[in-house]
Amino acid sequence: MSVSPEVWLLGVCALPLLAAPTVYVLGPRCLPLLPMAVSASVLVSAVALWFRFVEKGAWTYALAGWDAPLGILWRVDATSLLMIIATALVALLVALFSQEEEAAMGGSKRAVVFWPLFLFLLGSLNALFLSGDIFNIYVSLELVSLAAVSMVVLGGSVAALRAAMRYLLIALAGSMSYLLGVGLLYALFGTLDVGLLAERMEPVAAARFAFVLMAVGLLAKTALFPLHVWLPPAHSSAPTAASALLSALVVMGSMYWLLRLWLEVFAPIMPVAFAQLLGALGALAVLWGSAMALVQRRLKLLVAYSTIAQFGYVLLLLPLTQSMAAAAAWSGGLWLLLSHAFAKSAMFLAAGLILHARRRDYLSDVVGAASQLPMAVFALGLAGLTLMGLPPSGGFVAKWLLLEASISSGQWWWVLVLIGGGFLAAGYVFSVLKPAFRGPRGAAQFAPVPHWPQAVCLAMAVISVLMGLYPAPFLEWLALAAGGAGGGG
Amino acid sequence: MFDAWPLLSLLIWLPIAGGVLVLAVGGKQPERARYLALLVSVLVFLLSLPLFAGFSTETAAMQFVERVDWVPALGVEYYLGVDGISMPLIILTAFSTILVVLASWRVIQYKPAQYLAAFLIMEGIMIGVFSALDAILFYVFWEAMLVPMFLVIGIWGGPNRIYATVKFFLYTFLGSVLMLVALIYLQFQAESFDILEMHQLALPFAAQIWVFLAFLLAFAVKVPMWPVHTWLPDAHVEAPTGGSVILAAIMLKIGGYGFLRFALPITPEASMSLAWLVIALSLVAVVYIGLVAMVQEDMKKLIAYSSIAHMGFVTLGFFLIFPIAAQTGGSNGAALLALEGGMVQMISHGFISAAMFLCVGVLYDRMHSRRISDYGGVANKMPVFAAFFVLFAMANAGLPGTSGFVGEFMVILAAFQANFWYAFLAGMTLVLGAAYSLWLIKRVVYGEVANDKVAALEDVTIREKLILGILAIAVLALGLWPAPLIEVMEPTLANLLEQVMVAR
After folding, report:
1. NADH:ubiquinone oxidoreductase chain 4 N-terminal domain: from which residue to which, for each copy (chain B) (predicted)?
2. Which end of chain B has fewer CB within 10 Å, C or N?
3. Is residue A69 within 8 Å of residue A191, measured between CB atoms?
């Protein structure tokens, strides 16, 4: 281990953030080589960090030597590293896909804006995952939101602009709410560090209120029902590569911190009823998101609504972690986030290819896609397996862990949500596969699409399925991160 | 010599790897894909024979066991093994896959490599279902089976294939998620996903009822039992011939297998108290579905409905053991007969339904019609085919000397020990089965040549003769000398019966 870990930390955060303006200045000359090289290095750095973690365990790193309570502390542990690796891998695959500029972002003119935004988003997401204090989280969240909103604008249409505006306003309102909570906590406990907060936390009303404010802010950014209205138009009118990043990674960032703050800091002081309320919102999100996905006529909108439903599942882990089954629920929820990231980006990219080949993405335009874009349709189907929670897929393992947690903690009502959500997911996945497989073989007006962007979709979908086949070591790390509360039944 | 081999793993992963290989090398060269697929399927079948040869009939314990950790944090193991229930079904699976590969030889011209790969992968998964002894492993294989079948019907199926596949998928999915909940519940009770540990559980009665109902729904959809059978005729009609063969010969058996592996041993008291329900549903299937089969105008639909009626015998046999025990008290002879009858019926139906669907496939490949009224006088033009078709129809009707007779006879005989009316209603199948099978034969095979298309028919090719000939031998062999089959499963079934009957 000759390279010091700081280098790798800089590799995942500073490198893409610095590369973003560089790419913008250098312009088309450095495209697509430089951003590709940067995203590959991010992945290498993330994996290197993981190996160091496996060797030496979790550690914190004080940026510029400023320690807690005031300094900027980075926390490197199993959970944050898994997020970073998944982010880097999804980003690298999206970058590969984006070599097909016409399908990914609607033309090479947009590439000069897309790539800087892409790198900026990648760097700020990694900063978000590595943050160790609640103010730093706020800053990173803002950066992520700004990059995300700009990516929606890149869609170019009037609908995209309107959606981006709505997204921006809600994201800003969410940030304000979150920041109010941060201020309140600092006034109460005199620290911003997540670990210190957990130590000093006391069951006082003001602390509870602070968490409610932060949770509302994070939920607005995650598009949880009923704060979800901005997501479908924003994610569906963004360019394809951006849709994949937004739906797979951006919402995962805010959800991730809601979960971690809950588990590490607030779960002991929040009343059971509050957790149940959030769980109920999650259940409603599952039902509402899936039902809306079922009635959509446009492919990208359908995929976007399914994101709302999938994040609803994740929220179920809040009430479940207040029980003995915390470890199972925690690793289940995070595994769902991770496998969803791959499945959803696969779906958006595949949908984007169909949109690109047909110029429109109404479900009626999908007819015959199975024979024209076989790999893309297969990717849609495989990713659908994860959404339905069918084995062997990452979604299955996640759903199974959540089922296990619900049954063992006696909260059987969540079982109904998990089962019902699976059915609804089957319903909307089939509403895409049905037309795709229908129609005369080999006779539809599809513009030709090269093989390799399809292969990228397929690779992502395959990863989401493989996550069900060998989850063992990662789940163990996640369960340990949950405080070793029983090791998952 | 095979003792040291991980035979079951080979049987699961060899066809899956073979399927991937067929995909990889056969995409551009269909002929190479066909020979490779045939080679793999024959190899798998040959590898399945040592299961039979090396099988010990002295014990009811699991044999050829393989056990390693898979997800240790969650207590999930890669745990395989076979007993007298699963071993014959595995061999049947390997056998049927060869037939499917052969039957598709000239018929499937659209993406043949993908078609064959789907069946090889499905073969591995189905063998996995039969040999998994870890509940989660079982569930994974059980659900994974849906995907290749979905693709087979969805891509190579008939005009209404999308409707049929989605219906097939949703029905099975509906049953299986509840089963997952039941399995997770059982894991908490047994503190293990080991199915054999689950067998040792003494669950409270109320819990047993819930678990049993979850199992019943999952397995009843697969069998399929009336009234959740409606997906089957649609799936069969739309499926290509190979899909129908696997669906009828193997997939339906997985439902029956589930009853023996899960429902009966894990929830014996609930099975006993709800036996009346299963018996009633089975008898409805035997009589009512038998009548429905008679009025079908589509040959595949007719055989599909006849499958449902015949599978009614399987569930009837399995659950008859409770009324029989109530009648006879201590003696288990008749109850064992009922269980064995159900098992023999499963294996025999595997051969006969495969044969019937292949016969329809032979006609369909020539005429592109499954309507009975389009045919007539086929025997004049296809005498060899007609002989085979008549033989299989007779077996379907339960003619003594064919395998169809053995299982039904055993179940009916056992039914007399329980209740005369059960036996009477079950016996109706001999009448109804003869009626719809022979009437089908009369309309299709006999009579004057109906039209010009029939007049232009050519008799079966050597390849088709080979397929039908092998099946004819199997049907007759099992009918004339069922003893070896019954011997291998007797210790296991006797042990199962003891487990179910001894109150814990």
Report:
1. 68-123
2. N
3. yes
